[in-house]
Amino acid sequence: MKKSLISLKLILMNFLQFGVWGAYLTSMGSFLAGAGLGSQIWLFFATQGFVSIFMPALAGIVADKWIPAQKVLSLCHGLAALFMLGAGWYAAQAGASLEFGVFYALYTLSIAFYMPTIAISNSVAYNALEVNGKDPVKDFPPIRVFGTVGFICSMLFVNFMRNGQGIQYQHSYEQFLTSGILGVILAAYALTMPNCPCKPKEAGSQSFAEATGLIAFKLFKQKKFAIFFIFSMLLGAALQVTNGYANTFISSFAENPAYANTWGANNANALISLSQVSETLCILLIPWAMKKFRIKGVMLIAMFAWVFRFGFFGLGNPGGGVWLFILSCIVYGVAFDFFNISGSLYVNENTDKGIRSSAQGLFMLMTNGLGASIGTWAAGRVVNHFVYNAATPSWPTAWYIFAAYSLVVAVAFMFLFKDPAKQSA
Questions:
Q1: Rounded distance between C-alpha atoms, residue 238 and residue 301, angstroms
Q2: Domains of the chain
Q3: Could you report the per-residue pLDDT of 257-311, keeping only the tens digit for each?
Q4: What is the DSSP letter of 198?
Q5: What is the Cα–Cα distance from 241 to 238, expressed in whole angstroms?
Q6: Average model confidence (pLDDT) for the chain?
Q7: Out of 9, 55, 89, 221, which residue is the most buried by the measure of CB atoms under 10 Å away?
Q8: pLDDT band at 112, cuts 50/70/90?
Q9: Which residues is 162 bridged to in the sheet?
Q10: Which phi and psi (to 5°) does residue 162 adopt?
Q11: What is the spatial distance between Cα 363 and Cα 277, in angstroms, rounded to a whole number?
């Protein structure tokens, strides 16, 4: 396969991969709040984290041992799309009578199969680049940029599209149907990716850990990886907070006469999409940043960026303070990319090829699994206390608490983590 062609194929794969997610991730909270489930927003996002505790690791094991990664990617996207379409169809039929149990079950089944695809798509991309003589550290970030472009396009689509009742998709069930349709397309497209060979069976007997791929957990025996994964979990607690509440928070200003007619209050998803625009640009800085600051410096930059991300939200408003929202969106690119992408590359560069898919799944477990589950649960308690269950709602207080947490994590990481030299595990 020509080198230029593989880059184009991976660009389209990443565009669809994150387009599927972007169709609902930042706007689902608004839909739930409108359906009377505002106090349960945290549960939907915590569930994303819960399934990430085991599903990415299991899918990584399957891809390492039994089924080529590109086929696992296709299967997972196909099932995720089927259940997401089911969730959208049920919401359309139920209308104002939407029942939490049915919708939540369909949503949970969908994300249970979607979450593993984030790590598996990385493995597929790294493999495709390597077999075509390319360097993943240098060549993957420009390709991954188009994943964020896909996310932005989906966000803007559901922001500006309106259904027959004139309701924006970002506030209605159409966002889930949009995601499901994109998932079906990607399930078919994934099968066109270069083959990712499973790890050859070794002669002689194997331990249970070797046979199942759980051997990736041996990385915790190394101090550098143990500390890295623990802080990945702690920082992962911040990942879904703004996805869950930013749209609902900004849209709530429309209830205030002083901000009811502002563009931002009525186009929350479009305003939030500036975060992904920043993310697109910041991805291009990763090769330089990794070389200049190494993994510790890059992670520290990400941690302090989260402090500003939350702090600016607490200070801003869609009127005269909209510039603070814009600053929050700008620093998000650094907060997200310098953590997620750099962390994934670090794992890829410092682990043996035989356990890379499993190691990527382990990274996902700690960040989007344990970290996101615990963080979103805690964030839900904070938001419910200061907003949904408060006599006088105070969104700023919640954002300041999140900022303070990120600051504590950053300071602790500064003293406890030592940047190691690259070496294979």
A1: 14
A2: 3-197+212-416 (1.20.1250.20)
A3: 999 899 989 999 899 999 988 987 887 788 888 888 888 888 899 999 999 999 9
A4: P
A5: 6
A6: 86
A7: 55
A8: very high
A9: 168
A10: -125, 145
A11: 25
